[in-house]
Structure formats: C-alpha cells, structure tokens
Specification:
With about 270 residues, this protein is of the alpha+beta class. It contains 5 helices and 19 strands. It has a 6-stranded antiparallel sheet. The protein starts with 8 loop residues before the first strand and ends in a 6-residue tail after the last helix.
Length: about 270
C-alpha cells in the first residue's frame, strides 16, 4: 500500500528544551501549529493553509468541516505548511513551547491513528489529518476538565507531539487500568478505552487539591504521560506573581513583612 503522507526524515536535539529538525526532499512538506516554527533553510516556502492540509476532501464544505473540528479543540482555523521548492534536501526546525520532550509518532506503526491532548500537537508530515476525537460517553464531555477534549492524528506518516516535564510510557495489557490526572495525558493508541471518573469522598473533593475527576485508561494499548502539564505550570507561575501590582522577590520574607508594614491587609 502506497503512503498518502509525505515521508520525512527528522532528528531531535536538546534535553529539556528540545527542537525537532525535519529534512525535506524536493516537493516534500510539513505542517505545523502557529508559534512552533524555529528556523529553516532557503528554498523552503511557507504558506498558510485552511485546516490541516490532509486533502481528504477538496470541496469547500469539506475544508470548512475539517477546519471547524480544529476550532472545537481551541486551535486556529489555519495551519502553516513548509514546502521544499528547491533541488536538494532542506531542513526546517520546530521548537517545544516549554520544558519537556518531543515525542515522534509513526502513525503507520499505530494502525493509522493516535489520540493526544488538545495542546500537545507540534507538527506533522503533510497529509496527516488533525481533528477532534468525539466522545460517545457523556461523562467525558461534562466532567473531563482540562483533558476531556482530545485531538486525533490520522494517516500513515510522522507526527510530533510535545510532553511537558518528564515523559512516561506505559504499555497496558488487555483489561489493565491506569488512572491519570486528566492534564497529565499526552496521548494513547487507538485501542485504549478511556473515560472520566469522579473522585468520591468529601475529603478528596474539598481537601484533595488534585481536582474532582481523573481519567481511567484501559488496555490493551500504549499510553504516554507527562509530569508537567502546561496548565499546572501556568498555575504555578500565576500563583507566584506579585498581587496588587507590587513587585517583590520570590519567596522573600522582606516582601511579606513589607506588606504588613505598608498596611496590606490581604491576610
């Protein structure tokens, strides 16, 4: 069976702040989310495309529907395509948005489908379809928190997703269950059954500090987990910002004493 996606070569550089360098043969292309571009050689043409460029349906309505699915995941209607219009091999690089790891996904080895967190997708070979994974279970839609809207990557080419912090890989056997914070899911293979469960008990609800819900992932299949979801990182950054516009050192005792002396009655 011939490939429907562009076949690209790549190399990942770095440890904590990684970037992926993709090598394109003449007329090969890669698509990426806005803001992930890092650098490129000459003779690579950038073009804004409507949707993901998978070209499964070239009609106007088909393109609108494809792009509309991306809007449901909170992403833009448009993506950027990088096409090698030169004669030889050219490189284009894409960087991680925050500390973590870049995970290469060969969709031809994942039975043509991989489900990932809505903000995990970085870039992919042109022809890979980037859409929304519709849930047939009511619990996922109403109670999933940050992790209930998932993206699906379909095709037979390479795709790259980003995981925050340290990346963990878990291979689940048939019927084996893994319980995960919804934001810590990077992605999983197509045969993994997932749902959202409520954490019962008044102590967990009021004092747990980990949210009211978690995801249950049931094998068989492979699951990828991140130790630092962006929402958790952003929450810590926001919590450390000076309140009321005052500038004080992080963790500074003098900052707190200064608030008391200065009449700050926030406590």
């Amino acid at each position: 069976m011939s490939s429907t996606n562009h076949e690209i070569d790549y190399e990942i550089f770095g440890e904590e702040m990684q970037y992926v360098e993709i090598e394109l043969d003449p007329q090969e292309a890669v698509v990426a989310e806005a803001g992930s571009f890092m650098m490129m050689d000459s003779d690579i043409k950038m073009d804004t495309i409507f949707g993901d460029g998978s070209n499964q349906d070239n009609s106007v309505l088909g393109k609108i529907f494809s792009a509309g699915k991306r809007v449901l995941t909170g992403e833009s209607l448009f993506m950027t395509a990088f096409l090698n219009i030169g004669q030889g091999k050219k490189q284009v690089s894409f960087a991680s948005p925050y500390p973590g790891k870049i995970l290469p996904i060969d969709l031809s080895e994942k039975e043509g489908k991989f489900i990932c967190q809505k903000d995990a997708f970085l870039c992919a070979a042109k022809g890979v379809s980037v859409g929304i994974e519709f849930s047939k279970r009511l619990g996922r839609g109403l109670f999933g928190g940050e992790g209930f809207i998932m993206q699906k990557l379909e095709g037979d080419g390479m795709a790259f997703v980003h995981a925050g912090g340290t990346l963990a890989k878990k291979v689940l056997g048939p019927g084996e269950v893994l319980k995960v914070d919804t934001g810590c899911i990077v992605g999983f293979t197509k045969d993994v059954d997932y749902d959202i469960e409520f954490i019962g008990g008044i102590k967990n609800t009021v004092f747990g500090g980990e949210g009211l819900f978690f995801a249950t992932l049931r094998g068989p299949g492979t699951v990828y987990i991140q130790s630092l979801p962006f929402s958790r990182l952003a929450g810590r950054v926001l919590a450390s910002l000076p309140k009321g516009g005052k500038d004080k050192g992080e963790g500074s005792i003098l900052g707190t004493l200064g608030d008391i002396v200065g009449g700050d009655n926030r406590f």
